[in-house]
UniProtKB/TrEMBL annotation:
SUPFAM superfamilies noted in UniProt: OmpH-like (SSF111384)
A Pfam family assignment: OmpH
Protein name: Periplasmic chaperone for outer membrane proteins Skp
Family the entry assigns: Belongs to the Skp family.
Keywords from the named record: Coiled coil, Signal
A molecular-function term among this protein's GO annotations: unfolded protein binding
A single Gene Ontology CC term: cytosol
SMART domains referenced in this protein's UniProt entry, alphabetically: OmpH (SM00935)
Organismal lineage: Bacteria, Pseudomonadati, Bacteroidota, Flavobacteriia, Flavobacteriales
GO BP terms, alphabetized: protein stabilization
Annotated signal peptide: 1-19
Length: 331
């Protein structure tokens, strides 16, 4: 192990010396980080982890079953014959052997978990290797290491980490399969901009500042547009109300809005002498009551007039039937 570590250390020193003397460009990736951030792998790995949890539950259940067999044997051992004790001990041993075999089959060095994970990782690794080669050729890298491999890296500067570029390359390839030609052209332009910004962080910061300013301007314009629309609507409502009022004045009618308060005053003053508003149902009832009261008052007045006329007529007739007084004689 020490020899391996020393060889790796010397190799890094050689690379560093060559980089300083000949301008060699070195980068690295973190395979574990890349796998965690590739959607296809993350989803498949989650399903595999669910399987592993089920296997672990089966193992725990088997351990509990074996423990129960041991406890039962310990409790009943004094009552059992030697043959029965040996038979139960043999059964317990068989169960333990079966459990160990199951553990090795699922979680051993060549078990299902390792095998299925290797099958799962293989296509992603192939994509990573292809992406690394493309990036290395495009950006003139001489060496690209895997940080998560057995190679011990004593120090790694973040600016040499191309893991995010690899993830972007893999994601881009998946997106391209579903794009039209026009979308593909726009995507290529966007990718070119991102690649340029990777090489020049100051350019990325400047682009972000411009995008923030543009977003702020767009928001201000949107706010002004909404305010102008609100003012226009308010003016339109006022003009419409004024035109309606003029038209009603010409025709001698009153609009629903103008007549609303008048109806409230007329009905409620007639009912209780107040001018407070009532619901529409109460207004209708009050109006009907007013009409009924007026009708009754007219009938009563008419009846009284008729009664007065009848009384006057009767008085005249009685006066006519009374005998006339004879004039007094003079002495």
């Amino acid at each position: 192990m020490k020899k391996y570590f020393l060889a790796a250390f010397l190799l890094l020193l050689v690379f560093q010396a060559n980089a300083q003397s000949r301008g060699i460009k070195i980068g690295y990736i973190d395979m574990e980080y890349i796998l965690q951030n590739v959607p296809d792998y993350a989803e498949a790995n989650s399903q595999l982890e669910q399987k592993a949890q089920k296997w672990k539950q089966d193992i725990e259940a088997k351990k509990i079953e074996i423990a129960k067999l041991k406890d039962a044997l310990k409790t009943e051992k004094a009552l059992l014959t030697r043959e029965l004790i040996e038979e139960r001990e043999e059964e317990i041993k068989f169960q333990e052997t079966e459990l160990l075999d199951f553990q090795q089959k699922k979680f051993g060095p060549n078990g299902d978990l390792i095998t299925q994970k290797a099958v799962l990782v293989k296509p992603i690794q192939d994509q990573v290797f292809t992406a690394v080669q493309d990036i290395a050729e495009l950006k003139k890298y001489d060496y690209v290491f895997d940080k998560s491999s057995d190679l011990t890296m004593l120090f790694t500067a973040k600016r040499h980490d191309i893991s995010d570029q690899v993830i972007r390359t893999i994601t881009r390839a998946e997106k391209r399969q579903e794009m039209t030609k026009k979308q593909l052209k726009a995507q290529e332009a966007k990718e070119y901009q991102e690649d340029v910004e990777d090489e020049n962080p100051a350019l990325a910061a400047r682009r972000k500042a411009l995008e923030d300013k543009k977003a702020l301007r767009d928001k201000q314009l949107e706010d002004r547009k909404l305010a102008a629309e609100a003012r226009k609507k308010e003016q339109d409502d006022k003009r419409k109300a004024a035109a309606e009022a003029r038209e009603n004045k010409k025709t001698g009618t009153v609009s629903a809005n103008d007549n609303k308060e008048g109806e409230v005053d007329e009905t409620e003053k007639a009912v209780d002498g107040t001018a407070t508003e009532t619901p529409k149902e109460d207004k209708a009832a009050a109006k009907a009551k007013i009409i009924e009261d007026r009708k009754k008052a007219l009938e009563d007045k008419k009846k009284k007039i008729l009664e007065d006329r009848e009384a006057a007529k009767k008085a005249r007739e009685e006066k006519k039937t009374q005998p006339k007084e004879e004039p007094k004689k003079e002495e």
